[in-house]
UniProtKB/TrEMBL annotation:
Residues 291-368 form the PDZ domain. PROSITE patterns: PDZ (PS50106). Gene3D superfamilies: 2.30.42.10, 2.40.10.120. It comes from Neolewinella marina. This is Peptidase A2. It comes from the Bacteria. Pfam families: PDZ_2, Trypsin_2. InterPro entries: Chloro_Bact_Ser_Proteases, PDZ, PDZ_sf, Peptidase_S1_PA, Peptidase_S1C. Keywords: Hydrolase, Protease. GO terms for molecular function: serine-type endopeptidase activity. GO terms for biological process: proteolysis.
């Protein structure tokens, strides 16, 4: 049995040699990758840094749970039934797209309770030309509603019912909304009351040329939450159950949802609705210009270097705020109060949310040089 010590010595020597070989042959980490210790004796390369425009909030590891948002939003959503009497049948059917077997003409949609004392927000096209409007709340109470005011250029309307202590939603900051975040659409699509659908924000600042007025304000939040006829006027809410927008339109070749729906952002809704409640109408501020999104032809015509976004000033109205501020035709507006202006919807929303008398700081590019101008907005009609 004397050979045992020699055997153990040989095994030990072999193990040491093997470890040395492994360590020598193991490739060193690249210079820009730092080993991170996971547990004693174990290392792995750290992931390469990812470029981010802003830090993201801590997100839960579990799947997104939208039940709380649905519980908060559903009681605040109403069904709006708008009926018309004594008008041309063909005209009204074209407006509302509905004719019941009883011969009654009208339309229906959704709305969201804006305040506990009975103010309700919906779309203008839901109640347009209606003589009798009935609102049904989530608990199946029915109320006659009156129109407080409308703003066709944004497709918004405010209704009032005689009720108190109604549930309503906190407003979300639509400026902070980002593509990829979860949202819910709540309403009465195809007559199915209190329907909740989910999706994500797909894009912001969409202009569909849906509203025919030349100075209409279109800067929609685009989502892929299913929205169908009857959803119009209902809320788009975030995962906290806060009002992020008013569902208004779908992009479809069939008249039914095909993956694209659009909502008026909450910050614009608040600005217009608060005016309607306080004054009976929206008090709009104007610049006194004609504007359009920057196009490749404009870049070439004006010799703009390294500029692919912004809004071109096409005309200036005499005596308007823009003329007083020193704005000129062919100026390229690229920012307002530090907020970037990519295209026409960005600027129309910014001006639409401003009030007459507000002073804005505009960054413009003129002859390839950036400059700051201060503009004092005037009320519409001046």
């Amino acid at each position: 049995m004397k050979f045992i010590p020699f055997t153990l010595s040989a095994l030990a020597g072999g193990l040491v040699a093997a470890l040395l070989v492994v360590m020598l042959l193991r490739p060193a980490p690249p210079a820009d990758v730092h080993p991170v210790r996971r547990s004693p004796g174990e290392y792995y390369p750290a992931a390469a840094p990812v470029a981010e425009t802003a830090p993201l909030p801590d997100l839960p590891a579990a799947a997104v749970d939208l039940r709380l948002a649905a519980r908060r939003a559903t009681p605040t959503v109403v069904h709006v039934d708008a009926r018309v009497e004594g008008r041309d049948r063909a005209t009204v059917k074209a407006l509302f797209g509905r004719e019941e077997s009883s011969g009654t003409l009208g339309g229906e949609g959704s709305g969201v309770i804006y305040s506990a004392d009975g103010y309700i927000v919906t779309n203008y096209h839901v109640v347009q030309a209606a003589d009798n409007i009935t609102v049904t709340t989530a608990d199946r109470r029915r109320f006659p509603a009156t129109v407080v005011g409308t703003e066709p250029k944004t497709d918004l309307a405010v209704l009032k019912i005689d009720a108190r202590n109604l549930p309503f939603l906190e407003l979300a900051d639509s400026d902070a909304a980002e593509p990829g975040q979860w949202v819910l659409a709540v309403g009465s699509p195809l007559g199915l009351v209190s329907t909740v659908t989910a999706g994500i924000v797909s894009a912001k600042g969409r202009n569909l040329s849906l509203l025919r007025d030349p100075d209409a304000i279109e800067s929609f939040i685009q989502t892929d939450a299913a929205v169908n006829p009857g959803n119009s006027g209902g809320p788009l809410v975030d995962t906290e159950g806060r009002l992020l927008g008013i569902n208004t339109a779908i992009a479809s070749r069939t008249g039914r949802f095909q993956g694209y729906s659009f909502a008026i952002p909450s910050e614009l809704v608040k600005r217009i609705v608060d005016d309607i409640i306080q004054y009976g109408s929206y008090r709009r501020a104007i610049m006194g210009v004609e504007i359009s999104s920057l196009m490749p032809a404009d870049q070439q015509r004006l010799g703009l270097r390294d500029r692919t976004e912004g809004v071109i000033v096409d005309a200036i109205f005499p005596g308007g705020a823009a003329e007083t501020a020193g704005l000129r035709v062919n100026d390229l507006i690229v920012a307002v109060d530090g907020r970037p202006v990519r295209d026409l919807p960005d600027l129309t929303e910014i001006i639409g949310r401003a009030r007459p008398g507000d002073r804005l700081r505009m960054t413009v590019v003129r002859e390839n040089k950036s400059r700051e101008l201060t503009i004092d907005l005037l009320p519409a009609g001046n």
